[in-house]
Amino acid sequence: MPTERYVSIDDCRICGSSSVSEFLDLGMVPAVNNFQDAPDASIEKYPLKVVFCEECNHVQLENTVQREALFQHYTYFSSASDPLLNHFGQYAAEVEQDFLTAGDLVVELGCNDGVLLSQFSDEIQTLGVEPAENVAKTARERHGLDIITELFDADVAMEARERHGEAQALVANNVVGHIDDLHELMHGVDALLDDDGVFVMEVPYLIDLINNAEFDTIYHEHISYFAVRPLSRLLQQHGFTLFNIERLSIHGGSIRAYIQRQDGSRQQRQIVSNLRTLERALGLDELATFERFASDVSRYRSQLRELLKDIEGDASVVGYGAPAKGNVLLNYCDIDANTLDYIVDTTPAKQGTYTPGTDIPVRPPSDFHDDSPEYALLLAWNYKDEILEKEREYRKQDGQFILPQPYVDLV
Ligand code: TYD
């Protein structure tokens, strides 16, 4: 195992304290977005361990895997999922209405294939920052967007500012959790944001992760798992503050955090202190809470394996959806092509590939409709409502979905 492909932290990524305690070990897991062209039993795997900072209570991965190892075959296109398209349409409209006027600049960090930026009106200037070359190319070609193909940092922020001036809004959707150096991010925000500008970030919310046992959303790309209290501490260190938060159902439960400079013009909304209080009440400031979560996760693993063992041999089982999180679940629970005949997914780039670490073939949804297997393990559980509705015919014909989350169930 080439250990140089990842580094372990000694200190908390937010407060720098060395009092970080491991509470969850999901084993050796490959880069979960690296779908393979052929089965590969010798795929590289990295430890997937989660630690809790006793000082600022930030929950984060123990290891940082090199970006080059994680993004060899980047197949995640935001616009592949219809529900996400709608989400981003509404989101652009809200940011524009609440914070921007004609001629203003919005910069998106980690803009993926441009699905959010493309939905701002023509009156707003847009700029994307996206390190993955292939998705940035799609953003340019499909929407004519201006994209800087780099990882956002203070230098990129200065480059953006020289090209376009200060930004009145910065948006970062589901990307801040991917950033190893959170202080460099904040230096960049500081360099690019207008004095009274707004930084809007969406991140999965730690309360939802714990309450719904969403352990499969823990993977190497997701380095931080944010709660409001540690996030506020990070912002405060850099002269910023939260003035509003919305809770959203996207990605299994997220927060949209609205941030401004400490001397910004907007009043802080009550929800900010309410969520801080809720986090304490739920014990997010105690290691024991996370240790209990870890034992729940280990129990779910046994239950799912037990169910699949009972079914195996008597009926056919496939996977439904091949999200990155599905690969965490499959690797952690040791479920491979002996159990699942194949997995169906709507993303063309994933079809014809094999799941990393478990070598299960990924096929188009038409295969599922042709074969009508007895069971389908719903790996894309965050789209449960849409998928159960879409596949009502399958269920009418006695097909059953196995739900792995928040607890093992059949519907
Ligand atoms: P997503 O939830 O975006 O997840 P992750 O961040 O864990 O990769 O991925 C959902 C996957 O499910 C994506 O590959 C598309 C697929 N999908 C289907 O195959 N059918 C569907 O009806 C939906 C909604 C998604």
Q: What does this entry look like structurally?
A:
The chain has 411 residues and is α/β, with parallel strands linked by helices. Helix content is 33%, strand content 23%. It contains 13 helices and 19 strands. The strands form four sheets. Strands 8-7-6-9-10-13-12 form a seven-stranded mixed β-sheet. The chain has a six-stranded mixed β-sheet with strand order 16-15-14-17-18-19, covered by helices on one side. It has a four-stranded antiparallel β-sheet with strand order 2-3-4-11, with helices on one face. Helix 4 (154-164) packs parallel to helix 5. It is globular and about 65 Å long. The two termini are 41 Å apart. The mean pLDDT is 94. The protein binds thymidine-5'-diphosphate. Thymidine-5'-diphosphate binds at residues 76, 80-81, 321-325, 345-347, 350, 380, 382-383, 386-387, 390.
Q: What overall form do the CA principal axes indicate? A: globular
| Overall average residue pLDDT | 94
Which compounds are bound in this model? thymidine-5'-diphosphate
Tally of individual helices: 13
Fraction of residues in helix: 25-40%
Task: Assign the structural class, choosing from mainly alpha, mainly beta, alpha/beta, alpha+beta, or little secondary structure.
Answer: alpha/beta
